Amino acid sequence: MDDSKQLDELLSCRLGSGAKKVTPCTIVIFGASGDLTSRKLIPALYHLHCEGRLPDPFRVIGFARREKTDDSWRAELREALGRFSRSGAVDEAKWEEFAANVVYCRGDLTDGDAYAKLRDRIAESESEQARNNVLVYLAISPSQFSEVVARCSAAGLLNRDPDADAWRRVVVEKPFGRDLESARTLNEGLMEHAHEKQIFRIDHYLGKETVQNILMFRFSNSIFEQLWNRQSIDHIQITVSEKHAVGGRGGYYEEAGALRDMVQNHLLQALALVAMEPPVSLEAEAIRDEKVKLLQSIRPFDPARIADQVVRGQYFAGQIDGDARQGYRQEPKVNPESDVETYVALKMFIDNWRWSNVPFYLRTGKNLPMSASEVRVQFRPTPNILYAAQCGSRLASNSLTLRLQPNEGISLHFNGKVPGSSMEVRPVRMRFSYDTEFGAYTPEAYERLLLEAIAGDATLFIRRDEVETAWSIVDSIRDGWTDVPLTNREFYAAGTWGPVAADDLLASSGHKWRNPQPIK
Ligand code: BG6
Asked: How far is the CA of 108 from the centre of ligand 1 (A)?
């Protein structure tokens, strides 16, 4: 080990006992023929296997309706891994080792006999623990969640016993409902057959390194946390911009829209981590308690005045990097008169002691000039004396940017004297880059999430009250949009930073959007 690595090792503090303790188990993937399985789940499990992080032994059983054999499914997965592996080349020996534990079970989700067949396949394992510990992964449509869980329970694959020696868990993909009522119904359906402690609701943003780093950054550094309040912070912006269009997902998007697709989950989760109070411990429930409290402190939206606080937008034809992009209404499976939002910007307040009257601006959209997610903390300006007295608004206030993706890192912006005999001041930047500091490796969110679910740690998953609180926020916004068509100020050309109405939203409080910048 070279000197600098040795020093890093000395300075690092490993939390808990280090590597997660995992026990032999069987992972059953419902929706085995789906995109998520080949694109994310199997590559994540393969990489965990390569790193020796999966339990020994483990088995993966894919369940789906299409006719396949173990071998033909493995061949399909191998081909997909070649395309989606984050590490590029696939290590054939490791793949063979991994694939030997992967089998397929053909069946219809509504057919009770298919679950008996599945139970038989689980029973094939030579390891008693792998036969008894079962992780059920629902990579299927939410309309099928309740039935599959009920059938798993009837076949003895799930039980409502969080403390049993042999564990049974269920991982649920998003979307988790389409409003509060449907989320409640889903929760009730799931909870008939599994205890809350056995349910792992996914939001893949929580699996991202940089999102996890928000809490570590806040609560392991004294300098910033002291400033993390209304006395020092003027406002906070959270941007999740996406360069790609809705593309082939028009049908889904017509039902969802950006508010349900991105705000209800990813943006509100990021907000909760940025703004929550310190938890009493690092235990899952302590952290989730604080996140829920934060979401509950968001000032309710008044549906009658929603346009003052929330702007939706929809892209029309434009260009990105010289590529022509068609309008949303021209996308396949989209109603040519659709009013569904492909962009949303919100101005919100958190009515608690720390954040009273500090605006939080959140925005997300498709077909924006670049894909980037960041949290920008804008500090208050200096008093209007000395430099500020001369430069006025041209003297930038300090800001801290947590770049969540890509070019992950953290930048602090402050003012500095331009060298020379004249007195000139301009903003300069100090930047920490993950790549430079830790190397280019950033694990896929799904690797972390799958490992946590296998280990039974729910910290990175969404609790029932969290998901329901998020839906109640989103529902009140949607109520304000009912039967209100989009106005001209809410359309934006593909390749621009969103509709004019979103600029107005901030201008009304003297602020403006800070767009993510390319980082070299
Ligand atoms: C998904 C949304 O949850 O998140 C997509 O359904 C979106 O519409 C995606 O593109 C963004 O995820 P990421 O990890 O690419 O930022």
From this structure: 28
